[in-house]
Amino acid sequence: MKIKPIKTITQEYLDNLNNPETNKFLSTHGKPQTKTTVKKWIKDNKPYGVYVDNKLIGTIHISVIPVIGILVFKNYQRKGYGLEALKRVGQKKMLTGIDESNIASINLFEKAGFKPRKMWQL
After folding, report:
1. Which H/E stretch holds residue 16?
2. Which residues in the chain land under pLDDT 70?
3. pTM for this one?
4. Does residue 50 sit in the same domain as residue 82?
5. How far does CA 55 lie from the centroid of its chain?
6. Closest alpha carbon to 109 in 90, 76, 82
7. I want to staple 49 with a disulfide (CB 3.0 to 4.6 A). Which of 6, 28, 112, 119 is the partner?
């Protein structure tokens, strides 16, 4: 097996991306992929091809999604400053990690529109 940058977009690659069994969990949510959309995705995400016997069998990439954390000093907590700060950041897609015992922070992020999501960690 080799991991190396994707240099060409083959019809087989496009066919696999458009296969409902392959793409059901992708962020494209089943939207048809074209050479143009895939070129843009490759440019934006810098994925690597997974090759076996020089045949592309998949891709792997590390997303560049901002991870946000917030600290509000004790004397200023529970006054709405945290929520206002989160709303002013203006990002459309962010992740956060919150200790499950930090109920106040969980409530704050839920008020700001964040949804719980399972993450796996190495």
Report:
1. helix 11-17
2. none
3. 0.61
4. no
5. 26
6. 82
7. 6
